[in-house]
Amino acid sequence: MDEQERLGLPLFISRELDQSTTQLEQRLDKMTRMLTELQGQLQATEEAAREACAANVARRAVRVARGYVTRAAGRITRRR
Question: Quick one: pLDDT at residue 12?
Answer without folding.
Answer: 72
